[in-house]
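hiii so um. not sure if this is the right channel but i have a protein structure encoded as tokens and i wanna go backwards to a sequence. like what aa goes where. can anyone help
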């Protein structure tokens, strides 16, 4: 299942638009339209889809300008990819935060950072997880860590912190139920906003986790099993986020 956000043909304004997802079933190539709520705007003259995109683009560039002061040509291309993926995520997060049965109000103010807050936050946390896992792989390649254990040999019983079990119970185990809730409504008004809520909640939880808990510890023999367990947990979270991005047709980024 993959979703493509698009405006309904022939209706150029946001406030009168019925935005929808095209949900493609890749097995039989069938398509189902999933509408999101009616979108109204404030601080906007035209209420056009282009204005929403322009507003988000300017905010993304403004918020990131201090990070990219001197760039090579390749560096500029990489930043362009980051901005494009972040923009796509921000637009979809703005249009998906409410149930299809409710209206959405967007404040298209050029200083309204809330327009990009959720999308950027989720993309940042995905990139942060990818970075930690990439660093672990580099440490294995440089022989500072031993090779990762097979999944059936990982000692998950070492994950004893409350934050770890909340991640497992509330997100890894719960994700199939979120998917099922959306799929069950295909043909009506699928609550695709639940993917946005799930991703945002998961991002807050994982951000708190890696801020409190040290993942890549000293490679002492007694710590290696715990490192393997925590890296396995992060890989599982990253896979869940990747699955959500695939469904929402968002290209994730591995560095920001």
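sure thing!! here u go:
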């Amino acid at each position: 299942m993959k979703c493509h956000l698009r405006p309904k043909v022939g209706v150029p304004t946001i406030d009168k638009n019925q935005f929808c997802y095209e949900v493609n079933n890749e097995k039989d190539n069938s398509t189902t339209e999933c509408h999101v709520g009616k979108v109204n705007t404030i601080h906007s003259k035209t209420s056009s889809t282009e204005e929403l995109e322009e507003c988000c683009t300017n905010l993304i560039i403004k918020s990131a300008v201090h990070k990219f002061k001197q760039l090579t040509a390749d560096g500029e291309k990489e930043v362009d990819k980051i901005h494009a993926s972040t923009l796509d995520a921000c637009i979809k997060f703005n249009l998906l935060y409410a149930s299809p049965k409710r209206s959405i109000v967007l404040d298209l103010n050029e200083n309204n950072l809330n327009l990009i807050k959720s999308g950027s936050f989720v993309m940042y946390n995905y990139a942060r997880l990818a970075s930690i896992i990439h660093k672990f792989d580099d440490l294995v390649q440089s022989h500072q860590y031993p090779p990762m254990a097979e999944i059936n040999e990982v000692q998950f019983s070492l994950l004893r912190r409350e934050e770890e079990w909340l991640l497992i119970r509330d997100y890894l185990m719960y994700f199939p139920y979120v998917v099922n809730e959306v799929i069950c409504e295909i043909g009506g008004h699928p609550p695709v906003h639940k993917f946005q809520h799930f991703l945002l909640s998961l991002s807050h939880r994982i951000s708190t986790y890696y801020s409190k808990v040290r993942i890549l510890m000293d490679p002492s023999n007694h710590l290696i099993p715990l490192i393997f367990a925590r890296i396995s947990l992060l890989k599982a979270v990253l896979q869940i986020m990747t699955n959500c991005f695939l469904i929402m047709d968002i290209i994730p980024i591995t560095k920001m």
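oh and The chain has a mean pLDDT of 78.
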